[in-house]
Every structure is written in structure tokens, then in C-alpha cells.
What does this fold into?
Amino acid sequence: MPNPSIPDPVSPVARLSTFLLQADAVMAAWDRYDDEHTDLDGWPYDQDAYDTREAERDHALWRAFQPLGEVAPSLLYLAEAAVDHLRATSLQARWPWQLSQLRDSLERVDAAEKEFAERTAASGTDYYASGEETFLAFAARNAAASAPVTEWLTHGRAVLEINAATVRAGQTGIRLAARTPRAAAPAAPARHR
It folds into this structure.
């Protein structure tokens, strides 16, 4: 658990940038795999191998998202505040919609994590235990979170654009910062693995 008295050396914007790079690489590798291991109609040559590789992709996306997921609620709050304060000439009409898509995606990621926690608690599975039940719980969580995490890849660049527009406008009072006041945004739920 991070110590709240020690400043976070990686800003939310840097975490978003890192996620975008990592997730883009994961999806590019998946696209290559998919192209090479399916027929012209999109059917896998070997369904079991394909399913295994898809689970690996979902796990890689989950891991790439975790550092961002810890700060995503604050980052969205600040981006929304920035959009509210930018001049109309600095705004892109798509930004509010993209931010709402990111917020919805974050809620879906949180729901997948909650369902995972409930599943492991109900089965009496130790979170750190190995075994088929734990593996299946992780795989189900990663699969459920895959689409909303991919939406962060699709729309996350809008937050970087908003940050750049805010800085260009000289509105440092709403600049996306490394830290936000505790009352400004809800705390991100604890994330695991």
C-alpha cells in the first residue's frame, strides 16, 4: 500500500501516457496474432490456443491499466473540470463525450474487480492462492475488464489533449496535476494484481 505522505513520483498524466503505450503494444501484438491464426472468415485454426492467447492479452491489458486505474478517478475529475473552464475556441466538441465514455469504462472495470472479489470470497479462494479456481477467477475478471480497458486506449488520448489545451491556455489553476485535494475526487478503489 502506498504511503500517502510520500509524493507520487509519477503523475497521472504520465501514467496515462505509459498505459497508452503499453496497451497499444499489447493490441498490436494481438492483431498480428489474430491475423496469423485465423482463416479468412475470422475462425481460429486452433480454438484452444487462440483462447489461451486471448486470455494472455486480457491479462496484459489488466496489468498495463493497474497503475492508471489507481489515479483514473482523479484524472477524470480534473479533465472534466478543465473542459468546463476552457474557452470555446480551445475545446473539441468530442471531449465531453469521450470523458463520459472513460467514466463509464472505469465503472465497468470497477464492476469486474468487485465481481472478482465477490467470486473469490464466495468460493473461499485465497486471493494469493494458486489453483484452477483462482486462475478462472482472474481470467474472468480480466476478460470482463478487457473491453472497458480497451476503451481507455481508444479515448484516453483525449485527456492528454485536454491537458495540453489547458496548459496552452495558461489556466494553471485547473492544470492536470500529480495530486488532487482529497475532497476533489473520490478515492480509487483498491486494485489487485
Summary: Confidence is low (pLDDT under 50) at residues 178-193.
